[in-house]
């Protein structure tokens, strides 16, 4: 049995993972259904895998956050408390994260090993360049995209799949949250 690996990512309709504008982490479109669904997904037993870039962004946002900040939403707190592997050659521990270890090396080797050894499913949030590399290596079983109802042609940054390989996608699940956001779960296969 190998552990499954899910790439979980938030996206604008035009495929950006972040924005330089004043939109907020969910582009201002979160609602109770989305937040409850996120908490349910993260309540499952699993191991997180982060790239060093995403770890640094979260650590910085948490350090600067107040009680009301989005980065302290219940599902994020739950995500932060899950066991985590941060893949990095430049970070050295201890990390400012409850249960994280640094795996030094390339993500493809680290995740191939984790998939063999982990007794729980693996999940990654964000970690865009790391997940593009893992998808190209055929290690990503599920791409779970939450599509927020915005177009950010002026302020979009970090095109999620720019520079990725080509993939055919099999749609496995879809749901509408709060009547406006879409969660789509796909199985990717390299397009040859
Ligand atoms: N849209 C979303 O859902 C979402 C969620 C969270 C974050 N984000 C955003 O995503 C961005 C972070 O993504 P990122 O792409 O900059 O960084 P990342 O993928 O989080 O981290 C990249 C780092 O991971 C390590 N790594 C190890 N093997 C790798 C491989 N084969 N390929 C790539 N990286 C590998 C390297 O660390 P070393 O250099 O230390 O070795 C590399 O610099 C931030 O802007 C953040 O705000 C988006």
Automatic annotation (TrEMBL):
Pfam families referenced in this protein's UniProt entry, alphabetically: RibD_C
Signal peptide span: none
Provenance organism: Micromonospora acroterricola
InterPro entries per the UniProt record, alphabetical: DHFR-like_dom_sf, RibDG_C
Domain Bacterial bifunctional deaminase-reductase C-terminal intervals: 6-178
BP GO annotations: riboflavin biosynthetic process
Highest rank taxon of the organism: Bacteria
MF GO annotations: 5-amino-6-(5-phosphoribosylamino)uracil reductase activity
Classification lineage: Bacteria, Bacillati, Actinomycetota, Actinomycetes, Micromonosporales
Protein name in UniProt: Deaminase
């Amino acid at each position: 049995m190998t552990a499954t690996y899910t790439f979980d990512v938030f996206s604008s309709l035009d495929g950006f993972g972040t924005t330089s504008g004043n939109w907020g982490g969910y582009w201002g479109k979160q609602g109770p259904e989305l937040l409850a669904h996120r908490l349910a997904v993260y309540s499952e037993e699993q191991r997180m895998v982060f790239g060093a870039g995403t770890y640094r962004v979260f650590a910085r946002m948490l350090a600067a956050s107040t009680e009301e900040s989005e980065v302290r939403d219940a599902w994020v707190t739950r995500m932060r408390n899950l066991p985590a592997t941060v893949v990095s050659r430049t970070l050295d521990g201890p990390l400012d994260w409850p249960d994280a270890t640094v795996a030094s090396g390339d993500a493809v080797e680290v995740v191939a090993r984790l998939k063999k050894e982990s007794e729980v499913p693996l999940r990654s949030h964000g970690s865009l360049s790391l997940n593009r590399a893992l998808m190209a290596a055929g290690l990503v079983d599920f791409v779970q995209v939450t599509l927020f109802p915005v177009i950010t042609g002026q302020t979009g940054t970090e095109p999620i799949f720019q520079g990725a390989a080509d993939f055919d996608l099999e749609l496995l699940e879809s749901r509408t949250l709060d009547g406006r956001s879409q969660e789509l779960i796909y199985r990717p296969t390299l397009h040859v």
